[in-house]
Design brief:
Blueprint lengths: L1 H7 L7 E2 L2 H9 L3 H6 L2 E2 L6 H25 L5 E2 L2 H9 L9 E5 L5 H10 L2 E3 L5 H7 L2 E6 L6 E5 L12 H6 L2 E5 L2 E5 L2 H14 L4 H12 L3 H13 L3 H15 L5 H4 L5 H13 L10 H15 L5 H9 L3 H22 L1
Parallel strand pairs: 1-2, 4-7
Antiparallel strand pairs: 3-4, 5-6, 6-7, 8-9
């Protein structure tokens, strides 16, 4: 944590030789690439840099193919996080590893976008049924059927629909182009990128990688950018996510939020249970919690993310948002229908 704090402040020296314990922790929190770019040395990392370069090039290739396929059918799109975020705010593509390519489209364009991805050599790859993802969630995972087997998350929102009202068309209408190793990649404006990362930090229980995203983005923002982020988060009914994303990142990584972002203040009635939940999360959080923390997060997520106007919808929806349970119920309903149909035959 001392190294990350110095890194955010722009004062970190190269790491040099690291031990097995430090490497294991870096792997747990998905920050090996950042450490290698900052001079970490360990026998197990000797081949990491060329492998990371190859992986980043494959992801950029798949990003370009995905955007080309969507453009060919007239579907506007921007990428969320990924290489564009790495280049803009982390320093380069190699510093921030991404698992999948996240592409945002308008909800009305999802059918055409799905057909375009299939036509470009992708296939659906989700353990839960489409009806749940389309009605309760906000993305569908596709994966290439031929090497490289990189995943593409087709998104039509930046959060579950019950948490807020995100003007996706507005985000798509004002993209910025980021040059990523020779590949032009459309990305949201910095204020929307910050809001998306703040909401993502709530989803992943404020993991260190998400908190670094927020810190690095805010470090590069102008006062006007901060004002725009606050105004847009309020309009999307997601200003609590912006507040807690920024405040948790600042507290754990030792930086001072700009005045416009620091001025966001939730009520004590909301803040008390949220802070109790945040204290229960591990400091070096990998982004996945189990047991009672996971169940507590179902209640805490709306308090962390949604405005008061959204809470009457957000809290019951979040508590009942159980993909494994709903998928099992869906399988049971389908089996019952087959039984009825056979009986009627």
């Amino acid at each position: 944590m001392a190294w990350l704090t110095a890194l955010v402040a722009g004062e970190a020296a190269d790491l040099g030789d690291i031990d097995d314990e430090f490497l294991a922790l870096l792997r747990t929190v998905s920050l090996v690439a950042l450490a290698v770019c900052r001079g970490a040395r360990h026998p197990a990392l000797d081949r990491f840099a060329p492998m990371a370069f190859a992986t980043s090039q494959m992801q950029l290739k798949v990003t370009a193919q995905t955007l080309a396929a969507l453009s060919a059918v007239g579907v506007p799109a921007v990428t969320i996080k990924g290489p564009a975020l790495a280049v803009q705010h982390w320093g380069d593509v190699l510093s921030r590893q991404s698992v999948d390519v996240d592409v945002l489209v308008d909800s009305a364009d999802v059918p055409r976008a799905r057909a375009a991805l299939v036509g470009a050599g992708f296939a659906p790859d989700s353990p839960v049924p489409d009806w749940y993802m389309l009605r309760w969630h906000y993305d569908l995972l596709y994966r290439r059927t031929q090497p490289p087997y990189v995943g593409v998350e087709l998104k039509w929102n930046v959060c579950p629909p019950y948490l807020g009202h995100v003007p996706v068309r507005e985000i798509l209408a004002e993209p910025i182009m980021v040059e990523c190793d020779g590949v032009p990649v459309p990305a949201p404006q910095v204020s929307w990128q910050l809001i998306a990362c703040a909401v993502h930090s709530v989803k992943h229980c404020f993991s260190l990688k998400q908190l670094l995203d927020i810190a690095f983005i805010v470090r590069d923002m102008t006062p006007d950018d901060c004002q725009a982020a606050v105004a847009r988060a309020r309009r999307a009914r997601l200003w609590p996510a912006l507040h807690y994303g920024v405040s948790v990142s600042a507290a754990r990584l030792g930086w001072q939020p700009p005045p416009a972002l620091a001025a966001l203040r939730p009520s004590p009635l909301r803040d008390w249970p949220v802070r109790a939940y945040l204290r229960a999360l591990p400091l070096t959080n990998p982004g996945i919690v189990r047991g009672w923390r996971m169940h507590a997060g179902k209640f805490a997520a709306p308090l962390l993310a949604s405005s008061v106007l959204q809470l009457p919808c957000a809290i019951p929806s979040s508590l009942s948002d159980r993909p494994n349970v709903l998928a099992a119920v869906g399988r049971g309903v389908a089996a019952a229908r087959r039984t009825v149909n056979r009986s009627s035959d």
